[in-house]
Amino acid sequence: MPSMRPLDRLAKAVSPVLSPLAKPLTTPLTPQDFLSLINPLSSARQLRGVVTSVVPETTDTATIHFRPGHGWDPHMAGQWARVGVEIDGVRHWRSYSLTTAAGEDPAITVHAEGLVSDSLVQRTRPGDVLHLDVPQGDFVLPEHPRPLLMLTAGSGLTPVMSMIRTLVGRRDDADVVLVHSSRSAEDALFAEELAELSTAHPGLRVVHWYSGERGRIDLTSTDTLDELCPDWPSRAAYACGPPEMLDAAERLWHDADARHSLVIERFAPVVLDGQGGEGGVVTFLRSDREIEVDGSTTLLEAAESAGVMMPSGCRMGICHTCLTPLRAGKVRDLRTGEVHGDEGQSIQTCVSAAAGPCHLEI
C-alpha cells in the first residue's frame, strides 16, 4: 500500500492529541467532523475515498481510480468492495469488483446500467468523494502457484483482471489462459492492455470470443474448451459472468469430475426455479406506500419500484446491508424456497419475496 499523503498523515497525527481538547468546543459534533472539512478522507464514522481519475474503457464503461482514507484494508486480487454514492441527497450502496493489482490503490470498472452505475460512469469526476466499505470476497488466487484458466464474459472480467495484473509481470512462473467473451471487439474490456501483457509475457495467453459473431460459448460439452484450452481439466479454473454461463460451467466441471478445480464468482444470487410463490401486497409502513407484486419479485425491487428508498449493498444476499424489520406477514427466501417471518425479524430484502401480504418497517 502506498505511503499516506500529507493530509492523511496530519489527520492521523493530530487527531489523538487534539480530539480530547477540542471535544467540549465542538459538541454535539466531533473534532473529526471539522477535520473532514480540511481533509475529506478523515472521518471516524465512515470510510471514504477520493477519486483520482476516471478512465473510459468503452462507450458505456469507465474505470474509476480512487485513493482510500485511513481504515482501508489492502485488497487481495479478485475481491470486491461496497461503494456508496450520493444521488439527489440519498446515499446508495452497490458492490463492485476491484480491478487493480493486489495492494495498489484501488479502482472499480463500472458498466453504465442501473441508477448507481450510470451515475458513477456519467457523473464521477476527479476529486469526488466515495463512501466505502473494506474489501471482501473469497474469489481469490490459489495459495500455491499452478496453471490457471480464467473463463469470463462481459463485466465478469473485472475481478479476473485484478488477478492477471497481480500475477503477470510479478511472477515468472505465471501460467494463465484467459478466455473472455464479449459481444464484439469494441465491447471487449481492457483489450489493448491484455494484448500488450500477452505480448510481453509468454505466461499469459488471451483468447477473445465475440458472441455477436459466434454466439455464446458452448459449455454443454467439452468440445469448445478442448479447442480453446486443451489442458483445461488440469488447470485451476476461475469463472465469472452471466448466470447461464456459470450454471453451464458448474455442470460441465461436475460431469468431468473436476468440480473441485472450479471457483465461481456470481454478481447475482442463485435463485431456485419455481420458488416464487404467490406474492402479495407489500406495505411500507413508515413510507406510507404499498404495492402488489408477484412471488418472484424481491422486496428490494418492489420497494424501489414504489419509490421507497431502501438500504442495499451487494443485492445478492451476502453483505446484509438490506436487512429490514418485518412487521407482519411471511416472506420466501428465493435461494432456498423457505417461507419464514416473525414480527420484528430482520429480513434480507434483496433475496426475499412476499409470501402473501406483508408489512415492512421502512
Automatic annotation (TrEMBL):
Cofactors (names): FAD
Provide the GO MF annotations for this entry.
Answer: 2 iron, 2 sulfur cluster binding; metal ion binding; oxidoreductase activity
Q: Recite the UniProt keywords alphabetically.
A: 2Fe-2S, FAD, Flavoprotein, Iron, Iron-sulfur, Metal-binding, Oxidoreductase
Record Gene3D superfamilies: 3.10.20.30, Nucleotide-binding domain of ferredoxin-NADP reductase (FNR) module (3.40.50.80), Translation factors (2.40.30.10)
- Residues annotated as coiled-coil are none
- Entry's InterPro entries? 2Fe-2S_ferredoxin-like_sf, 2Fe-2S_ferredoxin-type, Beta-grasp_dom_sf, FAD-bd_FR_type, FNR_nucleotide-bd, MRET, OxRdtase_FAD/NAD-bd, Riboflavin_synthase-like_b-brl
Q: Where is the FAD-binding FR-type domain?
A: 44-142
Q: Where is the 2Fe-2S ferredoxin-type domain?
A: 280-362
Entry-linked PANTHER family: NADH OXIDOREDUCTASE HCR
Q: Output this protein's name.
A: 2Fe-2S iron-sulfur cluster binding domain-containing protein
What is the organism of origin for this protein? Arsenicicoccus cauae
